Amino acid sequence: MISGAGDGAAFSAMEATMANKYSFSTAALFPRSAAESLRLIAGAGFSHAELMPQCFAEAEERFASRAEKCGIHVASIHYPLAMFPMLYNAGESMVGEARRFGEGLVRLCRALDAKVLVIHPHEPAKDQAHAALLEAPVVGNLRALGEACAAAGLTLAIENSPKGPGRTPAGLLAYVDALGAGPASAPMVDTTEACEADEDPVAFIAKVRPCHTHLSDHAGEQKHIPAGEGAIDWRGVRDALRGCGYSGYYTLEPVYRHYLDRPEAALEKAYAFISGLIGSEA
């Protein structure tokens, strides 16, 4: 209950903070545990985070109770990279396990009030003569995940990739459409991945109209460096997102090597950058 002017001001400040959609990925704080990473992200001023589970325990529904004690809202979950061999697996004996694991991730999303589950495009079969055997089960896994997301009111965000069908705006849109993962599936944009594919992330965003973003910088051979430290036109990125009516989270996802030492200072710098960029009209 709000009691007194001081409490009212504090509540208003909290509301204003929660209203922003600045987020940071726990993937950038590897090899720390998800719980420790969430606490560090919260300590830097972020109200939201993207969870990248690093083990099965962090991907279970019951992990939500631990995450909620970290003082931050988990806004999105990235399908664990460590478990990609399950999702993109045509093995007859793995399909059932992959789908059960995906259903568990969806339950975790619901428990945390995370509205977005991130995946990558699969690699199309090179051997078309055996596509039904080697590719169809993988497509089935992705479609099943999309159906589970739709039933739970989540968005299945499909990220662009520097290789394969998601490397260009047209390719990513065509992939999402052809995949047939249902109404919950939508394209998202990773700024560094666009650069790696020799695409302009500003133009990529304008053409794709993403449902979700991963923001990191790029310069020459350096990729996934902290936003603001490379060659990407960040005002252009911001304006492109505004131009397409973007209402999702601004999720910073740099590579972890920049946060191995003194993560607190690096996270505070990241928060200052994204809040200054998105909060500015100039």
UniProtKB/TrEMBL annotation:
- Read off the Gene3D superfamilies from this record: Divalent-metal-dependent TIM barrel enzymes
Which of UniProt's keywords are assigned here?
A: Isomerase
- What is the top-level taxon of the source organism? Bacteria
The molecular function GO annotations come to: isomerase activity
Q: Does the keyword Isomerase apply?
A: yes
Q: Which residues form the Xylose isomerase-like TIM barrel domain?
A: 39-273
**Name listed for the protein in its UniProt record:** Xylose isomerase domain protein TIM barrel
Q: What is the organism of origin for this protein?
A: uncultured Spirochaetota bacterium
